[in-house]
Amino acid sequence: MTSKEYKTITDIKGPLVFLEKTEPVAYGEIVSIRLSDGSEKNGQVLDTSDDMVVVQVFEGTEAIDRKAGVKFLGDVFKLPVSKGLIGRILDGAGRPRDGGPEIIADENADIIGAAINPYSRQSPHDFIQTGVSAIDCCTTLVRGQKLPIFSASGLPHNDIALQIARQAKLRDSDEEFIVVFCAMGITAEEYNFFRSDLERTGALENAALFVNLADDPAVERLITPRLALTAAEYLAFEHDYHVLVIYTDMTNYCDSLRQIGAAREEVPGRRGYPGYMYTDLAMLYERAGIVKGKKGSITQFPILTMPGDDITHPIPDLSGYITEGQIVISRELHQAGIYPPINVLPSLSRLMGSCIGEKTTRDDHKKVSDQMYAAYAQGRELRGLVAIVGEDALNERDLQLLKFADIFEDKFLRQDRDEDRTIDETLNLCWELMTNIDTKYLVRLDQELIEKYHPEEKKA
Amino acid sequence: MSKNEGVIYRISGPVVTATGIEARMYEVVRVGNEKLMGEVIEIHGDQSVIQVYEDTSGIRPGEPVLSTGQTLSVQLGPGLLTQIYDGIQRPLQTLEEVMGVFITRGVDADGLDLEKKWDFVATASKGDDVLGGQVIGTVQETDTITHKIMVPPKASGKIKSIKSGDFNVTETVCTLEDGTEIKMMQEWPVRHPRPFSQKYAPDTPLVTGMRILDFLFPLAKGGAAGIPGPFGSGKTVTQQSLAKYSDAQLVVYIGCGERGNEMTEVLDEFPHLIDPNTGKPLMNRTVMIANTSNMPVAAREASVYTGITIAEYFRDQGYDVALMADSTSRWAEAMREISSRLEEMPGEEGYPAYLSSRLAEFYERAGRVETLNGEDGSVTVIGAVSPPGGDISEPVSQGTLRIVKVFWGLDAGLARQRHFPAINWLSSYSLYPQSLNQWFRDNIASDFPEVRTQISALLKVEAELQEIVQLVGSDALPMDQQLTLEVARMIREYFLQQNGFDPIDAYSGVQQQYAMAQAILTFQEEAKKAMAAGARLQDVVNVQSRTELMRARFAEGYLDKIGGLVEAMVAEIAATAEAN
Is the pLDDT of residue A2 over 80? Predict the structure, then answer.
């Protein structure tokens, strides 16, 4: 399609280009900008009126001058989708990055993505076994859930995400997940780590990667997760795949959002992030789920690093209000040499209740999980008390709980990066560890379960 | 004659500016070739600024804008109950039929089924003089709810003809002498409160079956409550519990900017739940509005108004209606987002300066009233607030607290200890006990307020003692204070904690709540006596019958058993003194 080229740029500011007097341009329309040296950049219309058009340039405005030519391509941003996406590596704007050919499109999908009608959703209820005890037992993952990892710089969230991607499966089923991986502003080193791990395990053939690295244009990051999710939706709802979307790092995404907001001189909300960040994040996270009448599903694993380990920072805070729980990585546990350093106390899976129990995992799962959690929480609290009054001041019960907290971290949390525990193994381990506490203090377990599972009280 | 067609001048996200129409404020307009629904929210000379309820991608300047002459309204009449709407009263089921599982745009759908025939029974007769709001007939809409057909608020006169029979909502069922035709369906602009004769002071509690709420921090029918809490503290579970068990006759549940999967859970669960007060499916008394966080932000802004207008409509029929809004923070954020697109001067934290007045206007639509028909009706509003980082010094929490009389403060710390409902008994308050005390005295027990005072005093003393315990350990306290701690622990674990997922414990009648509180006080009394006679605290606390008393609340028929269990406990405690 040929269209008019305009040479009417008036202002250039940050990632934005302002143009005067054009034919009517659609809101959200894709723009191509030809620079004087012949190279091209892409952008999208953010604001349009009879007099003025504002374009956000994905690759940054470097080297654009007022003589640059601007073409409006007559359509909103679309991603060519087909099954051919599987096994490919694309850049942050959806162009091949692996040297392979262009994607041959079955269709072109609008990347903004429409909201799923709540009436058409199906409640998630299929238990995903990740093989990580802390997650399977305490913050159980469900197919169709969005469960972010709240981490911080210097913590092994990438290892955990990869371990989950490798091991995640439905119980008694060979159905594998297709991984859609979306990198936003991560370093080349981190990217190589992900890629080589996926290559090593052969998962790359079953994955689609969308990669925007730290030295790629920051504004492009606003598009990258939308491309990844559009691909995920296509694979899940047109081709019945179960898709696991991992995106990292949401903090970089939000910073790009703030950058655009600042360039547009918008009124900032908390810590300078735009007031619409909640809605914007929701439009990504809410693209997880299962819909009636379709076999596929989208499960999301966003990773975000909490600036200053602060869980009340707007990025984790707003995310927590949208996602169905969170897995919190603890610096303290990491420093104590424990992998995976998951702090189960602030971690939560809101959908856990719908996928555990006799029919899906095991009849004792709920109560065991509650008891492990309660005992560990009390044990951790006692550590603080012991620091002040010493162990001598504790009674027998408190001493057992105090010791249990150490055992919990050492035996239950700690596992190898390749260790894949089944849910039965995890729950049996729980019972074994709970023998360190007198049965009479295990108040959250009922007698029936104790007789069925407790290694020392078991009735044959 | 005003001009009703103009053109788009500018598009910026959900905000569109049009020229060439002479629209009124808050008039509904149709934007672009796809006729997207929008509302005029600002007028500058020839330019009208419109908030659009649907995604605006791909719309161009120069496309047409049509004004409709109407303000944003809802359709009111038989067919509302059991429905699930989006923020602008489009039935989600209809949307699914038209667009499939994803919500696209440009689809218009009626809030009521215009074809369905309802069995109208006239209660007024020819020749009657009727005024606005007067009931002229009924329709049995669901098993539990009789829908009363009213004269529209602004009409009045002598009935010329009226007939019973099967009608759809747009057919005339009654004609007045002046020619006014009354149909079962009314339309009402959502931003205007519906009229009533007068407001009364609330004097009846909204019984929720949650002990901490009914007993310590009661909410009156016609009152307003705010539930602030950080994520994960159980706001949604509390709201849903209220929707399930409160003794309102009708419930309007607004899911405003919340999670899709959670909304689906509600939609899946409610049709199977039984209303403990009537024994019929809960859905029969429920209207739901679901505008999830990724649905258009302007429709989110409208959703609370749509909900409360529907609630008022049922109030006008003489019903007690409870409205849950989860979460009002998302509504406030929608206002902020639109305000920022309008480039308005921001107030605190970027929220518009009119935030607190909008919140006040909304909560003020709650109340117990005498309807135009002379009956008693009420709308109780319970709004969840999601303060960033759990810090309630932010504008939405503060704006809410200034208006509501009941504050149920959710506490992440309690939630982490698995103390549910995680409502903090020290920071929460209710200003209604004074006006409700008479009801409690008349209907439950003459000393109800005194028992409540004793229980809350014990909790306050415990908080003070806990500070000392943190420093020196509980063994260092004198025996009577150690006993106080044990009694307070009993209050927390036996009385305040309530398992919302346990079929029996989830709902506790007020009579039972009173009996449980009495049981705790009896324990304190008897323990004191026994200890004065030489019993050891540990023995008193460990009596088996007390554990049984506490555990029995998970079994059916607890209220009938509680007296016997308390007697057994009293006897066993007395025995501990004799043993020494």
Answer: no
Say if residue B28's pLDDT is above 60.
Answer: yes
Task: Please answer yes or no on whether B416 and A50 come within 8 Å at the CB atom.
Answer: no
By the 8 A CB rule, do B211 and B245 touch? no
Q: What is the DSSP string of B417-451?
A: TT-SS-B-TTT-EES-HHHHHHHHHHHT-TTHHHH
What does the pLDDT read at residue B1? 37
Q: Are B390 and B229 in contact (CB under 8 A)?
A: yes
Q: Do A25 and B61 touch (CB under 8 A)?
A: yes
Q: How far apart are CA B53 and CA B38, in angstroms?
A: 6
Chain B positions in Cβ-Cβ contact with residue A274 (cut-off 8 Å)? 340
- Check CB contact under 8 Å for A286 and B260: yes
pLDDT on residue A156: 94
Taking contacts as CB-CB distances below 8 angstroms, the residues of chain A near B10 are 47-50
A123·B101 Cβ contact <8 A: no
Q: What is the per-residue pLDDT for B580?
A: 67
Residue A200: exposed, middle, or buried by beta-carbon count in 10 A (0-12, 13-18, 19+)?
Answer: exposed
Q: Is the Cβ–Cβ distance between B334 and B75 less than 8 Å?
A: no
Interface A-B, measured as beta-carbon pairs within 8 A, has a size of 194
Q: Do B336 and A354 touch (CB under 8 A)?
A: no
Q: DSSP code of B124?
A: S
What rounded mean pLDDT belongs to chain A? 91
Vertex B175, ends B171 and B176: CA angle to 5°? Answer: 150
Instruction: Please name the member of B57, B62, B473 whose beta carbon is closest to the beta carbon of A76.
Output: B57
> Tens digits of per-residue pLDDT, A99-153?
999 999 999 999 988 889 999 999 998 999 999 999 999 999 999 999 999 999 9
pLDDT class of A21 with cuts at 50, 70, 90: confident
- Number of helices (H), then strands (E), belonging to chain A: the values are 12, 23
- d(CA A402, CA A408) in angstroms, rounded, equals 10
Give me the residue label for tokens 């990438």: A158
Closest Cβ opposite residue A119 in set B17, B92, B104:
B92
Q: Chain A residue with minimal CA distance to B94? A: A119
Residue B418 has pLDDT above 70, yes or no: yes
| pLDDT, tens only, B479-507 | 999 999 999 999 999 999 998 878 888 89
Pick from B104, B336, B388: which is nearest to A317 by CB?
Answer: B388
